[in-house]
Amino acid sequence: MGPHLSTEQNPNGCTTLFFLRVNATPPPPTSIDRKKERKMFAEENGLKGDPRLQAITQAIRVVPHFPKQGIMFQDITTLMLDHKAFKHTVDIFVDRYRDMHISIVAGIEARGFMFGPSIALGIGAKFVPLRKPRKLPGEVISEKYVLEYGTDCLELHVGAVQPGERAIVIDDLVATGGTLSAAVKLLERVGGEVVECACVIGVPDVKGQCRLIGKPLYVLVEPREVDECF
After folding, report:
1. Could you tell me the pTM of the whole model?
2. Residue 115 confidence (pLDDT)
3. How many angstroms separate the Cα of 83 from the Cα of each of 78, 88, 160, 196, 201?
């Protein structure tokens, strides 16, 4: 995924910039697209007031000026260090997908690998990695997608997904949804049925622009902010 800057003015007048692994922003969806493209934050979908969401948010570290000046990086490695918050994250996804007859949890390289296997174990599904080029040793199929400054590619092992298998796609953060859309296309090319995409963090500014080719998106929390500029 290519680098992208998203700015937001916070109450003290400082500009927060989020460093996101995203694709070039697609054109706004039509009214028909909006009916098909659904973005659901957990708090708005049955978990309003759930203390687990606050614990997840608080466990995510904001690293100012990384990887360069002005960028507020959403660091999920601290979430992994907090075993309770990490368990909350996995449990919420498991509770959502346990009864949806999901047989595949597909994780996008690399941070989707941090959550996908645990979710797969929790719902009794197999984990399928979607990797960058030349990382998988066997025969693969590829799906290219456009970045803001070029192109990238996801690859899938041939035979990892059987026709008719129901799948979800997992990643850590979503902005425009271009990479998730590429993952959906890749799985559907081999006959998989993508039920939903899911991310830990979702940027609220792009709710109406998230292009997931008709697939719903489930998000736990919004990006964290910092109280002061450094």
Report:
1. 0.80
2. 98
3. 10, 8, 30, 26, 18
CA distances from 166 to 6, 97, 102, 157, 228 (A): 33, 11, 5, 17, 45
Identify whether 188 is a catalytic site residue. Answer: no
Answer yes or no: is pLDDT of 6 > 50. no
- Give the active site residue among 8, 43, 109, 148: 148
Mean pLDDT of the chain: 83
Q: Which residues contact 149 (CB under 8 A, 6 or more apart)?
A: 2, 3
**CB atoms near residue 138 (< 10 Å):** 8
Q: Which residues contact 207 (CB under 8 A, 6 or more apart)?
A: 39
Specify the DSSP class assigned to residue 192. -
pLDDT tens digits, 137-189: 999 999 999 876 789 999 999 999 999 999 999 999 987 788 999 999 999 99
Percent of the chain clearing pLDDT 90 (strictly above): 63
Average confidence (pLDDT) over 109-135: 97
21 tagged catalytic: no
Tokens of 218: 């489930």
The residue with tokens 């007859």 is: 101
Comparing CA positions, the residue from 203, 207, 173, 175 lying closest to residue 23 is 175
From the list 21, 96, 111, 131, the catalytic residue is 111
Residue carrying structure tokens 């400054």: 149
Between the CA atoms of 65, 227, 217 and 44, what dihedral angle is there, to the nearest 10 degrees?
A: 180
Rounded CA-CA distance 154/142 in Å is: 6
